[in-house]
From TrEMBL:
SUPFAM superfamilies named among the record's database cross-references: Cupredoxins (SSF49503)
Pfam families assigned to the protein according to its UniProt record, in alphabetical order: Copper-bind
Domain of life: Bacteria
Coiled coil feature spans: none
Residue ranges constituting the Blue (type 1) copper domain according to the UniProt record: 55-132
Name the UniProt record assigns to this protein: Copper-binding protein
A GO molecular-function descriptor: copper ion binding
Secretion signal, residue range per the UniProt entry: 1-19
Organism: Ruegeria atlantica
Alphabetized UniProt keyword annotations: Copper, Metal-binding, Signal
Amino acid sequence: MKPQRLLPALLLLAAPAWADETAEICAEAEERYVELFGQPSSAVEDAEVVLMYKYNFCPSELTVKAGTTVRWVNVDKRTSHSVLLKDGSQPESDRLFPEESVELTFLTPGSQDYLCGPHWETQNMIGMITVEP
């Protein structure tokens, strides 16, 4: 066996169990989005979509070009969420109830951590946007 083939196999074995759980949750979130809006989130042309579902941001990390609008959409059935930029450059969004969304346009290159105001401490609901020039 060649060493380069062994490394990916070892990485898979070392992957934390929560990674699989998060992937499953994000797949469910996408199914829910399609159910609600009739198209995949990737079909949205005027923004990059981040889904909020079961105390997760899907995807939790996103890289965009400067000037891109990011739209957070709550696809949960009963839980409200918010979006709060960790650097405090924007006020926390209103609570987003199921099927509601909020948008921010990112103009400045760099990394921007964000969180769900009511759920970041208890549920670790945190995400990151990386803005490229």
